[in-house]
Amino acid sequence: MIADDDEKWLAAAIAAVKQNAFYMQRAIDSNNLKDALKFSAQMLSELRTSKLSPHKYYELYMRVFNELGTLEIFFKEETGRGCSIAELYELVQHAGNILPRLYLLCTIGSVYIKSKDVTTTDILKDLVEMCRAVQHPLRGLFLRSYLAQVTRDKLPCIGSELEGDGDAHMDALEFVLQNFTEMNKLWVRMQHQGPSREKEKREKERNELRDLVGKNLHVLSQLEGVDLGIYRDTVLPRILEQVVNCKDELAQCYLMDCIIQVFPDDFHLQTLDVLLGACPQLQPSVDIKTVLSGLMERLSNYAASSVEALPNFLQVEAFSKFNYAIGKVVEAQVDLPAAGSVTLYLFLLKFTLHVYSDRLDYVDQVLGSCVTQLSATGKLCDDKAAKQIVAFLSAPLEKYNNVVTILKLTNYPQVMEYLDHETNKAMAIIIVQSVLKNNTHITTADEVDALFELAKGLIKDFDGKIDNEIDEEDFQEEQNLVARLVHKLYNDDPEEMSKIIFTVRKHILTGGPKRLPLTIPPLVFSALKLIRRLRGGDENPFGDDASATPKKILQLLSEASTVEALSDVSAPDVALRLYLQCAQAANDCELETVTYEFFTKAYLLYEEEISDSKAQVTALHLIIGTLQRMRVFNVENRDTLTHKATGYSARLLRKPDQCRAIYECAHLFWADEGENLKDGERVVLCLKRAQRIADAVQKMANASRGTSSTGSVALYVELLNKYLYFLEKGNSEVTGDTIQSLAELVRSETKKVESGAESFINSTLRYIEFQRQQDGMSEKYEKIKMEWFE
Amino acid sequence: MNYLLGAFKPACNISITFTDGKNRKQVPIKKDNGQIVMNPLFQSQETIAGKINIEPYQGKKVEHNGVKVELLGQIEMYHDRGNFYDFTSLVREIDVPGEIYERKTYPFEFSSVEMPYETFNGVNVRLRYVLKVTVTRGYAGSIVEYQDFVVRNYVPPPPINNSIKMEVGIEDCLHIEFEYNKSKYHLKDVILGKIYFLLVRIKIKNMDLEIRRRESTGAGANTHVETETLAKFELMDGAPVRGESIPVRVFLTPYDLTPTHHNINNKFSVKYYLNLVLVDEEDRRYFKQQEITLYRLKEETLS
């Protein structure tokens, strides 16, 4: 409804404007000054309406504006015809209504200035003063906007023909400033017009008009003669005075932004303290962070664009000014939410990183200021603030791409203190990811210590609480990151590397039962890697005192708290594997007692912790595999361990498992390299024992034929392969008879039933056939006759 | 025009011309019937001289008991129309009784005539100067011809001309201070001034400055006052806030003003007022009226 009326009124007003413009044009054509004035005043009277919304009023204004152009030309011609311009200037002021009168006055005023009959200044002063008479915000705003428009090309600005002396500059400046001030006042006042329920709509409309006000600032920036001195002493203080005093959020926000955008960068740089000084004085609701961020962004770009500008930044101490100003703003705006203040610091930080990328101390200062601020608010709980903090803390990471640099920032961890757990963890992830992505080399224990301190959101639980709701997959993913991080830590110097490992261990052990299974392995492997390195470098350059001896490191690993921690938290299988790995490393270092100890621990774990039969099978195979490769043991120790392993094998639950474990044990008596470890007799014994078990399996299978399809054929074939292996290895105890009997077994069994092992058998046979024809093997294979398998 | 009235057609045509009639400034005067005619302009102490032509119509002769010319200054009250009060009356006999056969011209002269009052056309009163030529005839009735002329008196700028400055207001509602640069303005002057808003609690729509003329006629209990608004000049559009000052600049030229007249011959007075009117959004008017003195400044001394 209202919109419709709006349209109707506008249409009526436009029609009236058109009509009067037509008559005005006719009067102009016939050089009738009186009528021209009369109709132009009537046309302008349409602008006196209060019915139109700002948007529509603007449309109407533009119509009238176009017509006034004609009138201006007419005035110019009229003065050429001998009519005194001073008379004209008076004549237009006879109009009874103020608005048409002032529009006409501005029009003739602009002609007056051009005529150079009077000093520009007098006219400008008069015009800007007379325009005070329109106090209606909308109409006044447009009137003054018209004034600005028509005088614009008459001001002594850059490139204009009307360049005056120094005074003229100042007067023009004064004129624009005053017009700006008045326009802003009107603009601000607009919000109080009309009923308060339409306030929101009005503010929107008002916002649409802001460029009318802002244009003045643009003109100011174009004025000739506005150098740094004048800007600093006159222009800026005057503008800011108006901005601060108007106490209007919308205006302050917009105008601050305008100032920042229209004036040159170096002006800003040189007047930073003034500009920033205004910020705390703005209304609390003003979005200062947008304003300041705009400024900082601009200056950052400035710094980036020209190298010469950088010394200026240092000279004016831009950083400390910003830092101070933001502190003040935060102080002044009591209601500023934490998110807001953090955002402010975020922008400052970004600015600092841009401009002073080499000044870590500045970066640290920003963090410090933020800490001070946060200490007042306590831990952050709201999402927005948390997000901002993450961005805040991520900024230096992104800039330097190097965590080592971040570690030098003493306030960095302090900021993290204020995060809630969730955010802290998120931040930790970001940090770790940065390390991984950028392949950052973290080479000292101290750095490692600091890094883990930062990343403790990932490393341990807070307050001992375990968050049960956490997604298992996510958790794994996170801990994978930690694991990857551990692998990244590297120093060529073994001494330092060992320190690193010690440090990592310290942190990782705090991780709690859920993390340890995922984080201990990388630690152990990292340590083992070091051990290998030490061994590879044969001589230990540090002598026996050095901490970085394999022995010491292994001791560290064997200490109750490292790997054992895993068994405590029900990850014994992992612990077992790690012990075996350690044992292997110790073996390589020829530390018999240590190796033995690891094995003992592994055995103990096997006995006490591993109860699942499948796990037992796997563990046992691992034990056997590892033990087979041990070289450091004396006969006694070896026998003990071997015996134990064999014993375990026989006690497995399922017969096939027993069988397989035992034939694997055969390998324990036969090592390729060690001469003293070729006990063919015991090998065959093991295999025989395995075969007996296979027989038993076979019997059971026969008994329950039909229900169970798992025969022992496969076991026989496997055994056959074992025999072949040892045969090839030159074990003289492996006889043709044994193989023959096995072959027969296989044959008879395959005839009885579909065993599912045919392909295995066939490939074994093909292998035998092949080996018989090989040079080195043919004699060993003579014992085997192919007809056994027919 | 007399020939229109055929029956009463006078026997002769009388015309009056002034000595310097061609060069003398003519000013427009509105007559009773609304017609505007141009009349010659004089001022006090001037010599009013000229010629009177009496031209009998074709074939007629005018017999008379003498011809005289009078210079009259008259005040006419409209409630008493047709009844003139002559405050000045000078007579010159220009011919002795006799007969006029053909066109005859008589020179006349009133030297240094004292004409203290200005010609004035008001709502209820008129002050005029007129030359009256009478051809006195016994039986047929006298033939009379009038010639109006205008008198304007110029004065030097007043030695003391204070500004008008005043603070007015309605308690807790509206307080303003206004200032007009002078209290005495000449007719082509400009009123300059300022209105300061000290307190504004009402929603003002606009502010006008009116020029009002108050014409009072009669005396004592019969005094009749008539007020006219001669000009309504918008000073401000919209509602100001406290601290605003609004400029005033009113050119008096376009308005039909006269000097202030004080007690002209105990018959009437004409006074001028500036009326500052503030109108609020509910069309209530708040106003303050201040008397100003208008005077006629000698043209040459202008600017």
UniProtKB/TrEMBL annotation, chain A:
The keyword Nucleus does not apply. InterPro entries: Vps35, Vps35_C. It is found in: Cytoplasm; Endosome membrane; Golgi apparatus, trans-Golgi network membrane; Prevacuolar compartment membrane. Keywords: Cytoplasm, Endosome, Golgi apparatus, Membrane, Protein transport, Transport. Gene3D superfamilies: Vacuolar protein sorting-associated protein 35, helical subcomplex Vps35-C. Pfam families: Vps35. One of its GO terms (cellular component) is late endosome. Coiled coil: none annotated. GO terms for biological process: intracellular protein transport; retrograde transport, endosome to Golgi. It is a peripheral membrane protein. Belongs to the VPS35 family. Plays a role in vesicular protein sorting. This is Vacuolar protein sorting-associated protein 35.
Automatic annotation (TrEMBL), chain B:
Pfam families: Vps26 (PF03643). It comes from the Eukaryota. Keywords: Cytoplasm, Endosome, Golgi apparatus, Membrane, Protein transport, Transport. This is Vacuolar protein sorting-associated protein 26A. Plays a role in vesicular protein sorting. Component of the membrane-associated retromer complex which is essential in endosome-to-Golgi retrograde transport. The VPS29-VPS26-VPS35 subcomplex may be involved in recycling of specific cargos from endosome to the plasma membrane. Component of the retromer complex which consists of VPS29 (MAG1), VPS26 (VPS26A or VPS26B), VPS35 (VPS35A or VPS35B or VPS35C), VPS5/17 (SNX1 or SNX2A or SNX2B). Component of a retromer subcomplex consisting of VPS29 (MAG1), VPS26 (VPS26A or VPS26B), VPS35 (VPS35A or VPS35B or VPS35C). It comes from Capsella rubella. GO terms for cellular component: endosome membrane; Golgi apparatus. One of its GO terms (biological process) is intracellular protein transport. InterPro entries: Arrestin-like_C (IPR014752), Ig_E-set (IPR014756), Vps26-related (IPR028934). SUPFAM superfamilies: E set domains. Transmembrane segments: none annotated. Belongs to the VPS26 family. It is found in: Cytoplasm; Endosome membrane; Golgi apparatus, trans-Golgi network membrane; Prevacuolar compartment membrane. It is a peripheral membrane protein.
